[in-house]
Amino acid sequence: MFNITAEDGGARTGILSTAHGELRTPFFMPVATKATVKTLTPDDLKSCDVQVLISNSLHLFLRPGLEVLEAHGGLHRFMRFNGAIFTDSGGFQMIRKGFFVGADRDGITFRSPYDGKKYKFTPEFSKEVQMRIGSDVAMMLDYCAEYPASYDEAKKSVYFTTLWAERFPKNTEQLSFGIVQGSVYEDLREKSAKDLANMDFDGYGIGGLSIGEPKEVMHRMVEIVTGILPEDKPRYLMGVGSPLDIIESVMRGVDIFDSVFPTRNGRHGTAITSRGMLNLRKAEFKNDESPLDEDCSCYTCENFTRSYLHHLIREKEILGMHLLSLHNVCFMIEFMKRIRKEIEQGNLEKFKKEMEKIY
Amino acid sequence: MFNITAEDGGARTGILSTAHGELRTPFFMPVATKATVKTLTPDDLKSCDVQVLISNSLHLFLRPGLEVLEAHGGLHRFMRFNGAIFTDSGGFQMIRKGFFVGADRDGITFRSPYDGKKYKFTPEFSKEVQMRIGSDVAMMLDYCAEYPASYDEAKKSVYFTTLWAERFPKNTEQLSFGIVQGSVYEDLREKSAKDLANMDFDGYGIGGLSIGEPKEVMHRMVEIVTGILPEDKPRYLMGVGSPLDIIESVMRGVDIFDSVFPTRNGRHGTAITSRGMLNLRKAEFKNDESPLDEDCSCYTCENFTRSYLHHLIREKEILGMHLLSLHNVCFMIEFMKRIRKEIEQGNLEKFKKEMEKIY
Fold first, then answer.
1. B258 catalytic, yes or no?
2. Is B140 on the interface with A (CB under 8 A)?
3. Of A169, A234, A278, B293, which has the most beta carbons under 10 Å away?
């Protein structure tokens, strides 16, 4: 169930109902590929008001394996997260090293990087895996083309994705999201969106973007796709992203995002703040006794100075990665709250202009 | 101020008063060499009831530097720890790679591994550094011999340590602890302990042990030294250790311990539990849904299964290192509480026999 609660140009706020809570859109999901948002405890996530995250069903299938997850009563209990959980299907791992063997009309064959064993993921099997994992939202098995992709390869990605979309089980208690492909070709994105629009998905992912193409191209593809997808279903731009990319996409009608942006940056010593990105390794922070972000009330900002964080990052201390990841995730959650408020007040355009000065 | 509150054979409980709290002995200090107990936040330490930790004044002098610490109002505020803090002098870094240049009657010359700059640490300068860091207890600058050390080298370590002990400032608001050296030579340990016993230190470290010598030799050296040191001053066995080594040493009159044992083991995937050491990497934990330690109420044990921890450790996830370090530190704190209770009830010998079956 998805209800739109406010609109501001192409942007909208809404509520997506899941078995683990009513989620206010637009929202951002921290990434917990292997059943952990890197460096963060469930209590850390709670302290940041994280209501939903995304994990990866292919990774979980390989490790720890379905039996382990089922014995725990599902992923929520395994990782002790009580919010909503999306799972990706593994289609994206086609373009990641170490997993992909081949694809045909029937699905994708993956190889375990752990023991070399091969597994065929059909659309039905992908859904079964995600059901057994117990996530709240399953992403369909999709065919993700690399960037750059030839027109033929992109066409194939749409063709296979549509075939698999038809077969992917829908109308289950677990929500099922379709995924639009088509690389950077306008006509293929259009076709893919049209193919899926009339299928009974609970929402739609936009896949195969944010993998190296120019920003303008990504935004253009999003625009085409959201113009075709049903308005009353949530749209999820997969793998995005940074504050500006999120605003641009929200203005084009996107409701859901996920990205390793806050956690990867955190582990590498970079903080996302209301004044811009800060690389804490820089010598300028050595004597800076101010908090990371004066407008933030997360544990990191309430307790530590930039000087201390600089020290930890310089010394490669895990605590530094942890404290920056914590702040960055909190920042993204607060940023999305702000976006929702700006939409409700009809001020998103103005907010975007402010943000363009900062990021 | 140190008051003994109970005795059981050679073991005793007591209270050491510091500027940051009354510390019940025997106690164990987690190690925060670089102003962080590796992977743990101050809130984590509080959740484990950590009342005191030890940092390293040589490391802190080099990074972040005294100016940074002073600008924060000292180490406590820098790292946001409100308990008591001991600092080691850097004498131990004589036998660690990358720091030691040379020693003479006047002190030790260290080289910064960061920029190659050399610094001469005299006894007076060591105390000054520790005062400026703002720790509650300063360890004297000592001459630490490697193991194995020739008799001559061990004799030199005692000779220099005694010289420096005389010069090390005492009777300051910050407590000053002497350090007994002498390697594994009974007569030299005896001489060192006698040399220092009549100086007005607030407590005594026993240094240069737990660096490779056989356990029996370590225990023998401790016995000799505690037999000579004044009974009304706390004794601190530096760099120890494991549960059994701690019990053995407590029975020989030691009051204070520190070791990277819980944090290093945690980062390497090993848990200290009431049933013994568990290497979480082992396949036997893949399907083990029990908590790490049924007798523990730390965050890790209250929330996660061995199966989940096994998964995190296998995947080299930082959260796994964090959760095991947290448990291990909590375990050591609880273990010391138990030792204090057993001493008060006159049951330490019996407790030791139980523990010998486990560790």
1. yes
2. no
3. A234
Q: Which residues of chain B have pLDDT under 50?
A: none
- Tallying the residues shown for chain B, one arrives at 359
- Closest by Cβ to B34, choosing from A68, A72, A317: A317
Percent of chain B at pLDDT > 70 equals 100
Q: Name every chain A residue with its beta carbon within 8 A of the beta carbon of B64.
A: 286, 307-308, 310-311
Q: Please report the domains of chain A, with CATH numbers, ordered by start residue.
A: 2-259 (3.20.20.105), 275-326 (no CATH)
Q: What's the confidence (pLDDT) of residue B97?
A: 86
pLDDT, one tens digit per residue, over A44-65 is 999 999 999 999 999 999 999 9
Size of interface A-B (CB pairs under 8 A): 106
State how far the Cα of B141 lies from the Cα of B109, in Å rounded to an integer. Answer: 12
Phi–psi pair at A97, nearest 5 degrees: -65, 145
pTM listed for this prediction: 0.98
Q: Check B35 against A71: CB less than 8 A apart.
A: no
CB contact under 8 A, A307 and B40: no
Q: Which residues contact A273 (CB under 8 A, 6 or more apart)?
A: A292, A293, A295, A296, A331
- CA dist A335 and A313 (Å) reads 24
Indicate which residue of A88, A142, A255, A293 is catalytic: A88
What radius of gyration, in Å, describes the C-alpha atoms of chain A? 20
Q: State what percent of residues in chain A have pLDDT above 70.
A: 100
Neighbours of B94 (CB within 10 A): 21
CA nearest A322 in B: which residue? B39
Residues 6+ apart with CB under 8 A from B11: B26, B250, B251, B253, B343, B348
A67, A307, A319 ranked by CB distance to B40: nearest: A319
Counting Cα atoms < 13 Å in the Cβ hemisphere of A46 gives 6
Q: Where are the beta strands (DSSP E) in chain B?
A: 2-8, 11-18, 21-25, 27-29, 52-56, 84-88, 100-104, 107-111, 118-121, 137-139, 175-180, 203-206, 235-237, 256-258, 270-273, 276-279
The answer to whether A76 faces chain B, any CB pair under 8 Å, is: no
Nearest to B293 by CA among B284, B285, B302: B302
For A6-22, what is each residue's pLDDT tens digit?
999 999 999 999 999 99
Residue B43: its pLDDT value, please?
98
ipTM: 0.98
Contacting residues of B for A41, CB less than 8 Å apart: 299, 319, 322-323
